[in-house]
Amino acid sequence: MPREIKEICQGRKTELAKNSLLYYMQWYIGVKKELICHSTYKRYMVFFRLMERFEGFICKKLYIKEVNSDFIRYFVIFGKEEEYSENTIYRTIHFVKTILNFAERKGIRTAVRELEIRREKQKKEVITLTEKEIVKIKYTEVPEHLQAAKDWLLISCYTGKIFSDFIHFNTEQLKEINGKTCLSFIQQKTKKETLLPLHPSVLNTLKRNENRFPQLMDIQHYNIGIKEIARLANLNESIKARKRLGFRTKEVNAEKWEILSSHIGRRSFATNFYGKIPTPLLMEATGHSSEQMFLRYINPNDDEQILALGDYFDRIYEERGWCKEPQYV
Description:
Layout: H1 2-9, H2 21-32, H3 38-58, H4 69-81, H5 86-105, H6 131-138, H7 144-157, H8 163-166, E1 174-177, E2 180-186, E3 193-197, H9 200-208, H10 219-232, E4 238-245, E5 248-255, H11 256-259, H12 264-273, H13 279-286, H14 291-295, H15 303-319
Antiparallel strand pairs: 1-2, 2-3, 4-5
Helix pairs in contact: 2-3, 2-5, 3-5, 4-5, 7-10, 7-12
């Protein structure tokens, strides 16, 4: 044991113990590496490193036959003590279950059938930009170095795509179909071929850019840029939200501009058009395979939708003559 500690401290790699959980995780990731997209590979490596930290927490190597209900209990305790997000904790546990099934296919008996994974219901705050806030951003003047981020933000709010998709949009993907300008591209994550009609706001953004998409940028500079743009647009409403710090999240009170990240456009698109456009068409645009997954992007507390519902009630009430209340003697 002292020799192993010394080797680790000196930065030397030690071989993983055969039949250990990490050994099978590494094996599985190696098998899948060429079959999965880069973002999925990165997520698998997050699970792997988190399990390395857990072994450090319990001060022992974890073997595949030792992964049972006690493991789940201790891992949840570890995750909460270390302030990892609940999503990270339970996604890691589900990945471990995948590894146990992989080991079973290799002829190793495991406790996978005995595992019961109950995920605690968490109240997730979905932060979105309202249509008024998007218009406010649109008319906010920004320095030249922020213009590309501003244009990409507006494009994301009207296409509902993730950063890895919209940042690669280009004019060669444009198609005219029955007078409608559409974008034909392959989604990075699902490799699905997609045809997306472009919202007039996206077309106007292209016109301002001499019929070109904005310049390429990386996600780090994009996230920094859209926060600064939202600050300039005075999106300083105080909100309570869970802020991610690495793989941990913490509930904080912050001004809205501080919470913005690359997913804000996708969530805003889903929320702002939900109830106005048939859900199957919205799902086709966002690329969600199930309504359950799609609804995770909806802000249930969107004031504009509540007000629109109120206006709808009033309009129907007046149109049908219900406003003529009976007179009582």
